[in-house]
């Protein structure tokens, strides 16, 4: 695909917009899905990274990437890519998607975890969805509050929207819009005070500890566990922070699970060659799925989760 433009969102986050190289329509994406990129980072083997789509379904592809100090993939994206460059991109996939329902919607995120739930908010706003919608976001401060104005404008298009922002820095400054941010992080008490409906569908995205805390608070408030959907964007933060991997799930096929086992999954003793072999097989599976029109979610989930992802020549999209 062709990188059409780059937009700086915050001091550390940029959005990348992709178009097809021949003007043909892009494969349809559902709100909450992600793209997997194969990046030619230099003389070493390519790096494979997955990033959530932050754009509205049907409006082209936009991913928003946080630049991490030691991130091989994000460093390449922020330092080496320019509009007009060609990038290998697999079709959208993922099961963290906005479900069809008449129940209220609660969208909760922290930092760059806003990307997939922002896509969901775009879909809700485009449909002028009549359901009650809660937008709850945690940022360090106003300067690092990604998509503050965009989210606020989308919420203004909904008939029953509720926006609640938390800033964790002591001198965070004002939030976008009229509502002042709540200092700190969401707690069981603060979430209960919002009056969240207990029959809502909740979609959460952020660091693992954040996800665990919020999901626990929501269950304590009365939401059913099966209606709390989560997407972890930094499962291996020590290896590859800020990238949108999902944790390895029960959706993995037997063969994929065997490859992860052989690679040691997240175990420190896993050899680089074993991790590479597993990742390469999974990238190949994602390319094959694009050509055959299949939806292979396990491959891209593991590609990002393994962190050290490489590939061979000859895999063209």
Structural description of this entry:
The protein is 29% helix and 22% strand. By secondary structure, the protein is α/β, with parallel strands linked by helices. The chain has a domain at 105-232: Rossmann fold. The strands form three sheets. Strands 10-9-8-7-11-12 form a six-stranded parallel β-sheet, sandwiched between helices. Strands 1-2-5 form a three-stranded antiparallel β-sheet. α7 runs antiparallel to α8 (297-306). The longest helix is centred in the C-terminal third of the chain and has 21 residues, at 272-292. The termini are close together.
Query: First CA to last CA: what distance?
Result: 8 Å
Strand order of the largest sheet: 10-9-8-7-11-12
Structural class: alpha/beta
Largest sheet: 6 strands, parallel
Principal-axes shape call: globular
Radius of gyration equals 19 Å
Regions with little confidence, pLDDT below 50 for 5+ residues: 235-276, 288-317
Order of H and E elements: EEEEEHEEHEHEEHEHEHHH
Under CATH, the topology of one domain is which? Rossmann fold
The number of distinct helices, counting runs of at least 4 residues, comes to 8
Helix content: 25-40%
Q: How many distinct beta strands? A: 12
The top level CATH class name of one domain: Alpha Beta
Name the CATH homologous superfamily of one domain: Nucleotide-binding domain of ferredoxin-NADP reductase (FNR) module
Mean pLDDT: 77
Strand content: 15-25%
């Amino acid at each position: 695909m062709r990188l059409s433009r780059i937009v700086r969102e915050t001091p550390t986050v940029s959005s990348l917009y992709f178009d097809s190289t021949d003007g043909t329509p892009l494969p349809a994406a559902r709100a909450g899905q992600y793209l997997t990129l194969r990046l030619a980072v230099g003389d070493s083997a390519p790096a494979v990274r997955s990033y959530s789509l932050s754009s509205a379904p049907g409006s082209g592809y936009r991913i928003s990437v946080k630049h991490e100090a030691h991130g091989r993939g994000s460093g390449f994206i922020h330092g080496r890519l320019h509009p007009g460059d060609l990038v290998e991109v697999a079709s959208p996939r993922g099961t963290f998607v906005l479900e069809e329902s008449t129940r209220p919607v609660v969208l909760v995120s922290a930092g760059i975890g806003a990307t997939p739930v922002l896509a969901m908010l775009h879909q809700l706003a485009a449909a002028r969805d009549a359901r009650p919608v809660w937008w709850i976001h945690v940022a360090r401060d106003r300067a690092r509050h990604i998509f503050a104005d965009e989210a606020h404008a989308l919420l203004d298009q909904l008939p029953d929207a509720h926006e609640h922002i938390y800033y964790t820095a002591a001198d965070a400054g004002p939030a976008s819009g009229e509502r002042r941010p709540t200092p700190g992080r969401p707690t069981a008490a603060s979430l209960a005070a919002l009056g969240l409906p207990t029959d809502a569908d909740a979609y959460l995205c952020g660091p693992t500890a954040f996800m665990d805390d919020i999901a626990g608070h929501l269950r304590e408030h009365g939401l059913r566990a099966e209606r709390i959907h989560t997407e972890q964007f930094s499962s291996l933060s020590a290896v590859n922070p800020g990238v949108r991997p999902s944790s390895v799930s029960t959706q993995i096929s037997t063969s994929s699970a065997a490859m992860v086992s052989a690679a040691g999954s997240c175990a420190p003793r896993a050899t680089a060659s074993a991790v590479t072999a597993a990742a390469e097989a999974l990238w190949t599976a994602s390319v094959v799925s694009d050509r055959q029109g299949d939806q292979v979610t396990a491959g891209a989930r593991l590609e990002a989760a393994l962190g050290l992802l490489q590939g061979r020549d000859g895999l063209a999209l």
